[in-house]
Description:
The protein is mainly alpha-helical. The chain has 10 helices and no strands. The longest helix is centred in the N-terminal third of the chain and has 30 residues, at 34-63.
Amino acid sequence: xxxxxxxxxxxxxxxxxxxxxxxxxxxxxxxxxxxxxxxxxxxxxxxxxxxxxxxxxxxxxxxxxxxxxxxxxxxxxxxxxxxxxxxxxxxxxxxxxxxxxxxxxxxxxxxxxxxxxxxxxxxxxxxxxxxxxxxxxxxxxxxxxxxxxxxxxxxxxxxxxxxxxxxxxxxxxxxxxxxxxxxxxxxxxxxxxxxxxxxxxxxxxx
Length: 206
């Protein structure tokens, strides 16, 4: 069975950025504090991947192509991979692997606690993203995976806490997140397929 080309494309697109950033950090192309920039970029990459992942279900409803759901799972796993890299880079470049410093960091920067809670939620989603977990959990699987909206809220709060001085970029991501949440509300979600079917009928008549 041939591996779908679009899955290879997602893999390349998602994997190339951490490698590029790591190379830039290695050659000190990220400024005087490349470790911190690398941590920030991996964190922002996690948030962007989470938003892109949440786009998949509305796209599936709009187009009717079931492949979006497979893309959603792959992107979700990459989102988890990015947050693991984000926390690993934080431990290496910010803490210097000095775990005694972690308590000081938590007192000075409580947004780290918010990010850690989001990480634990993403971990639960990642380990249950397989078909075995879907069969095992049954109806509870969908309830568990609604945690993704909690992760989105925690991620935005974490980001807001970091960029308090400049809210323009944060507002863009927050607006996109709110829009995607609205699209998942039952009254709105039910209307999307109806609107698309009406549009297809009108196009056919023309």
